[in-house]
Each structure stands twice: as C-alpha cells, then as structure tokens.
Amino acid sequence: MKELALLLQLTKYDIKKQKEVNRVKKVIGIVLALSLVVVAASAMAFGPGQGMGLGMGFGGDCGCGIGENLTPEQAKKYTTVQNEILPLRQKMIQLRTELMNLRAQPQTDWKAIADKQKEMVDVRIEIQKKAGKSDVTGYCPGFCGEGRGMRAAKMGRMGI
User: How far, in Å, CA of 140 to CA of 150, rounded?
Assistant: First the structure.
C-alpha cells in the first residue's frame, strides 16, 4: 500500500513538473513568435533600400558614376583639384576625431568644442573655395539634367 501511495506521489510530482515545462515552452514560443513579428515589421518599414550610394564624392547625389563623361582635360582638372583638396580633407578628418574625443570627455569643455567646430568651418570654407575655383563642369550630364560643376554638386562639402 505504501508503494502505491509513493507511486501516486511521484506521478503527481511528474505531472506538475511536466505542466511547468509545458508552460515554459509556451512562453518561449510566444516570445520567439513576437520577436519574429518585430523583425519582419521593421524590415518592411525600412524597405529594400539601395545601400549607401556613391557618397559625397564627385556626382554624389546624381546617381551616375564618378567622373563619368569627363573629357581628358576635365579629368585632369578633377584629379588636380582632388590632390589640392586632399590635405584639407585629411585635416577635416583629424578635426572630427579631435571633436569626438572632446565630446567623449567626462567633463565636457564646451568652449573647446565650439573652437574645434569653428576650426572645422574654416577648413570646410577653404575646401569650398578650392572646389569653386576649379571650374570643372560636365561630369554628370543626362541623368542630373545638365552637367553640373563641383560648386553645384556638393564638391565643396567633401570631407565633412
């Protein structure tokens, strides 16, 4: 008789344990299903996309190739301007890194941040001046309407 009572207790214990395991499985299943729904909804919300594009370079927002349709003279001018602007772009990268380091400090020095940003504006203006003086045009005709020069196509904003 005691054996039968012991067997019934073990069976009741196993049944309770099995119910608890089933409950945990249901919760895990629901959480996974909700996670899948959230991931699918966010993928649909953002759409297929086209990636990062051409960037801020020559023809940045045109949708055409960099330097496409340039005559040899224009390509030479373009290369010359790129070489002239390169040290300024490197300076801009350095200033941006310094600015990020200033912002990461525990005690934010707002005057130093403002000074660094003003220095970045000065470099940006210098880039724009050099790009504007270059007078390279016609690098992206057709898709963009007319061939646009560096001034109209954000060339002056390179390195920002």
Answer: 10
